[in-house]
């Protein structure tokens, strides 16, 4: 059996975005968690998937929810992401959320907001995979929060780049990770 710590370390090498996933239960109580296990699933129809730990306080609320929201975070949302990742915290303390079109809590200044109806739940080891049909979406300008090697980073565009000086698609430079995408260079700081 693979060592759990080694598996966690290996997975931390994969840079991901950071999301807050939210819902409201039948008693109108808000629930949420931080997730980086999130992905688009289908374009037609537009679907996403997100994984919630079976040990999370909010898992039963999401298992019974008929709708949920995915808030794709900006780098400036690190403290909020950490709060939503901490068990037992009042995740919605301090405000900043409002009800979206489907009645789920959304973060108005998130980089992107997806409001979904729950299509199906799939067991996946110690997690439940929520599959949702995206009913509403909003996108705003800015840079995403990136999680890499168990730390938060930001993606910032560097405007002046000589592509002849970039030997590969991805490289480590001065403690940061550089990417080349669509002929522009991006730096993971």
Quickly describe the structure:
With 189 residues, the chain is mostly beta strands.
Topology at a glance:
Layout (H helix, E strand, L loop, with lengths): L3 H8 L4 E2 L1 E6 L5 E6 L2 E6 L2 E8 L5 H6 L2 E6 L5 H7 L13 E2 L5 E2 L5 E13 L2 E13 L5 E4 L2 E8 L11 E4 L2 E6 L2 E5 L1
Antiparallel strand pairs: 1-11, 2-3, 2-6, 4-5, 5-10, 6-9, 7-8, 9-10, 11-12, 12-15, 13-14, 14-15
Describe it for me?
The structure is a single chain. This protein is mainly β. It folds into two domains: 4-147, Electron Transport, Fmn-binding Protein, Chain A (Pnp Oxidase, Chain A, Roll), CATH 2.30.110; 159-188, no CATH class. Helices cover 11% and strands 48% of the residues. The chain is built from three helices and 15 strands. The strands form three sheets. It has a seven-stranded antiparallel beta sheet with strand order 3-2-6-9-10-5-4. Strands 1-11-12-15-14-13 form a six-stranded antiparallel beta sheet, with no helix packed on it. A two-stranded antiparallel ribbon has the order 7-8. A hairpin with a 2-residue loop joins strand 14 and strand 15 (184-188). The model is unreliable at 159-164, 166-173 and 177-183 (pLDDT under 50).
